[in-house]
Specification:
- The protein is mostly helical and about 35 residues long.
- It has one domain (about 1-35).
- It has one helix at about 5-10.
Length: about 35
């Protein structure tokens, strides 16, 4: 499972749009997650 801090960081609105990335809503996984 992903670290809680990283999950919260992913939820936050980034300073630049390109910094945003998708995470799995259940486990918080950043890679191999279908949007």
């Amino acid at each position: 499972m992903a670290k809680t801090a990283l999950r919260e960081k992913a939820k936050r609105k980034p300073k630049f749009k390109v910094r945003a990335y998708n995470r799995c809503p259940i486990c918080g996984r950043s890679k191999a997650y279908y949007r």
